[in-house]
Amino acid sequence: MKYALVEGIRLEATTGVRGNCPGCSSPMIPKCGLKRLHHWAHKSTVACDRWWEPETEWHRGWKNQFPAEWQEIRHIASNGDVHIADVKSASGSVLEFQYSAITPEERAAREAFYGRMVWIVNGNRLKRDLPSFQEALTYAPSAETKARSWLLSDQDSAIIGRWRGGSHPVFLDFGDADFSSPWLPSTGLIWWLTYIPRGRVIATPVHRQSVIDHFLSGTPIRGFGRLKPPPSRRSALPGFEAYRARKDARRWRF
Ligand SMILES: [Zn+2]
């Protein structure tokens, strides 16, 4: 974890300092080696958050986009289990940054537990995911949405298939992978997946920074203009809350 409590204060790992887990209160020791990023580890194997996954540079990079006091927020379930949300915004939205594989059961449990949450998923864990996603886009028609997007089957690529069946927004982060498109920038993209009935999914590229800004200050998540009108026009997508509210009422035209 990035933070431990040292005499009651949340601190990052520092050599020679002892802390306690903000989740379960057990002792933590700082790990400040050269190989992995500096972090706190439980001194002994304890039952802390069973949903916790080892932090990567990628996790840390995302967390650091948000205020320190929003990061690693403890929640206690009715059965006493401790869960630590990666980020919880001032308005109460939880952001989970997911690198490892996750079972559908655990995913559903986390969605039910946190309620209002989104998934930011690392798309680069498995080598085949990016090429198969890019290939799926190549053959997919445009979706009838305000911003430029594609209509895919939820079985068109493995990573889309693995994330189907949930009820919360999923953003796929392929880093600065090149999508070889004349109208997509080469950096700063993230793919918003919206699963819709009959096994389909709408993939919308949006500005990564606009997703961060949305959770920081409520500004709309921004996608890209449709091919007609001209691609230079950017269009605003509805905010996450508005999106959730309208999700069920929306009618898709295909
Ligand atoms: Zn703990």
UniProtKB/TrEMBL annotation:
The lineage of its organism: Bacteria, Pseudomonadati, Pseudomonadota, Alphaproteobacteria, Hyphomicrobiales. This is Competence protein CoiA-like N-terminal domain-containing protein. Residues 21-49 form the Competence protein CoiA-like N-terminal domain. Pfam families: CoiA_N (PF25164). InterPro entries: CoiA-like_N.
